[in-house]
Amino acid sequence: MPNLELRQLLRYNLYYWLALATFDGLNGLLMLLTYEEYEFHPPYVISRLLLLVLEIAISQRFINWSFSRQLPQLQVVLAAFVMLCLYAPVSNLSWMVLMDEEKFKAAMLLNQLDTTSLPLFIWVMCYLTFWRYQQQQQQLRQSAQLHQNIQQLELQALQHQLNPHFTFNALNSVCALLEAERYEDAELMSEQLATFLRYSLSKSPQSLVQLADELAAIEAYLTLQKTRFGDKLKVIWEVDDSLKAQKIPALLLQPLVENAVKYAVAGRSQGATIRIQGSHQNEQLLLAVTDDGPGCSLHQDHNHSSGVGLSNIKNRLQQHFGDKASLVIKALPTGFQVNICLPWQG
């Protein structure tokens, strides 16, 4: 536990001084009404001020000790008791010096205990309450910053999972074309791969991109795959141009299209058709990727084995949009569909 600074004590001692000044005023008025010979004594005021300075110095040490020993239940009572034991005898001693001995009564001690205990408790309670409040606010700020850092690390991890996965598949495709001596196709595929990687690597995990940019990257990816699969891969685009200015997380749809290619097209001799759809309904952007492949089971196995599955996409949506976004998986009689719902932006 860090030590409390003297400026913090001075700041909160204002509450103590206000309470003490009030009770001193009442006590002085009582003395004036009680003793006809009572006069104002400047040395007494000086002694009071010196006493306050002494209290501040000692209270700093004591409260630091109390918090360092983790005594939250006892620190208020102990602090007030120590301050009271320090204040009352010194205050009474000043009265003994200023007044004639025969006029000073033993009851003065009880009077001082009574008039000083309440302001001391007020001061200690105010100080510790505000100090605790500051500590809690600092912990909340640190917790929020830590949570934000964790979110950024999670998004970076997701990004790092996606890029190597796609690059590995694409390079395998280039190697297959080279083995088949299809050099022109291999060159075209390498160029498209460079274009796609330039897009994906230039976007941070936290970035939002226009739907048009994401669709252009997917088109480059599908061009790569069509070079490999030919007529086995068919693509249907059903996205209106009015939607393309909407913002979505970078590389949101590409993993879905990649799954469809790998398990609906590559896994069947007759290939498959991939349908990419987008629409605007009820202030929401609806996106869907559908294939007419073998169905849900292969995709489920893929999501368990590859580590780049639908759960990661759900995490990304949660990081960006919270509960305003959703991902729904639908198993079709022949095929597989993933629907994404995002909040409409302006």
Structural class by SSE content: alpha+beta
Question: Whole-number average pLDDT?
Answer: 72
CATH homologous superfamily of the largest domain? Histidine kinase-like ATPase, C-terminal domain
CATH topology of the largest domain: Heat Shock Protein 90
Give the helix proportion (percent range).
55-70%
Largest sheet: number of strands, sense, barrel closure? 5 strands, mixed
Strand order in space, largest sheet: 2-4-5-7-6
* H/E element sequence: HHHHHEHEEHEEHHEE
- Backbone shape: elongated
If helices are DSSP runs of H or I spanning 4 or more residues, what is the number of helices? 9
Let me know the number of strands.
7
β-strand amount = 5-15%
- What assembly state would you assign to the polypeptide chains in this entry? single chain
Architecture (CATH level 2) name of the largest domain: 2-Layer Sandwich
Helix-strand blueprint:
Layout: H1 6-34, H2 42-68, H3 75-98, H4 107-179, H5 183-201, E1 208-210, H6 211-229, E2 233-239, E3 247-249, H7 254-265, E4 272-281, E5 284-291, H8 296-306, H9 310-321, E6 326-332, E7 335-343
